[in-house]
Amino acid sequence: MAKLKLPAFNEGSLLQRTLLYVGTFVVGSIGFVALASLLVVTIAKSVLPARGEASEASEASESSSDKPAEVAAATPGKPTSKIPRPKRSKSAAPAEPPAEATP
């Protein structure tokens, strides 16, 4: 039976060992970054809504303005990323300071 002989880390010249260490480090780093980015993207996709769902939810909340904000926010199945807030009327807005005239 033939034995599988792998290159030993303590054999060869200094240049060969250094290249082996650097190559092992580069391959390991690329593997780690690929695995970490795959994990982050998977978690982000599961947490954030899709683009189409977010725009449909905002259109639905705008079209149902006769419903109170609490009822619209509690509607299941359509998560929104924005917090619904009551709209301010123009009379409740702070008055703008008068513009100064320039000579």
What would your notes on this structure say?
It is a single chain. With about 100 residues, the protein is mainly alpha-helical. It has a domain at about 15-75. The protein has helices at about 15-45, 50-65, 70-75. It is elongated and about 90 Å long.
Work out the strand percent.
under 5%
What would you call the structural class? Answer: mainly alpha
Straight-line N-to-C gap:
102 Å
Number of strands: 0
Q: What is the string of SSEs from the N terminus onward?
A: HHH
Write down the overall mean pLDDT: 75
What is the helix tally? 3
Rg (CA only):
31 Å
Instruction: Work out the helicity level.
Output: 40-55%
Shape designation: elongated
Oligomer: single chain
Unreliable parts: none
Largest sheet: none
Keyphrases for this structure?
50% helix, elongated, 103 residues, 3 helices, mainly alpha
Summarize the structure.
The protein is mostly helical. It has helices spanning 14-47, 51-63, 69-73.
Furnish the topology, listing elements before pairings.
Elements: H1 14-47, H2 51-63, H3 69-73
